[in-house]
Amino acid sequence: MSDTNNNFEDLKRLLKLKRHEVPPPGYFNHFSGDVVARIRTGEAGGAQNILERIQSDSPFMAGLLQLFGARPGILGALATGVCLLLLVGVLFMDHSEPGSAPTPELFAQSAPDASPTLASAAPLEPADNGITVSTNPVSSLQPANTLFGSPQNPLFQSAGFTPPGQ
Amino acid sequence: MLTMSEPATVPDANAPAALLEGDLVRRARRGDLTAYDELVKRYQERIYATIYHMTANHEDANDLAQESFIKAYSALKSFKGGSSFYTWLYRIAINKTINFLKQRRNKHHLSLDDLDFNAEHDPDLVALVSEKTPQRDINLSELQKKLNEALLRLSEPHRMVVVLHDVQGVSHEEIAEIVGCNIGTVRSRLFYARQQLQGFLADYIKS
Known about the structure:
The complex is a heterodimer.
Chain A: H1 2-15, E1 21-22, H2 31-57, H3 59-70, H4 72-95, H5 104-110, H6 114-120
Helix pairs in contact in A: 2-3, 3-4
Chain B: H1 16-29, H2 33-55, H3 58-74, H4 85-103, E1 114-115, H5 123-129, H6 136-153, H7 156-167, H8 172-179, H9 183-200
């Protein structure tokens, strides 16, 4: 054991040689600056990597992004158009009749004599603005032919619908 | 010049330097790169030295040291202050180095740093080498090469404890904290590693 301890002392002295190994002169002068520069590049490169990924995965999207970048007015016009479409859709929904969707039974009842019934049934009372919109998707677009000819007022298409409870 | 004759110590929490370091860490966590630059400057030599002694390759040590600091910066938010920043940073560097060495297993390429001019005047080395040949400078280079080759023959965990304790002067307790094992394991690894090195360097160690 004493030999081992003694040899370990020699080994420790030899290992001291490692402490004299030094990097090239001035090596540490720029080390921290290089680290910080790489951190900054990494922070900026995070966003850049997303763009590169879009370009490789979807050239169409990349072209679109390029177009929008070159002409931001187009993007603005597109966004305005989308908003207007949404607005029109909301308004359209607001003006349609609430709860007036016909049930399948009622379709079956009214279907065989849909044509004469449509002409002979009492016309729907128009709304305050003079426009009445039938919720029957077929009859509302096609004027029904009756035994007595075309209906007097093609705008009024009776749905042949009896509200429940009445 | 890189000389590690003084053992590395954990800063006293009451010392002004420790308070300043705490402030630097807080600022760096908020994204202050100037503060982080200061932290890098504090520990760059020690981190580089540990990695270099483990890899015996200056270029690898350069890359790994930089990447360790970069990783530490991105992981700053996870640093809860349970250990000193120095210990936490060391742990990152060591794990990175060990993972690198495992991937590069059995493919060692020595790229040694030069010995500084103090080497040939170190009394311990003078006593050791003068027993061999009078041409000390040549023997020192040969010794350096043989020593690094012998270290590379050790497994990474054994090499690590020798580098940290016998080369860099880190205490057993700190090594246990850095490496994540108990002090008994550190001591047993150190003993085994020294035995191995003694065998590899038998021609150069003479009682």
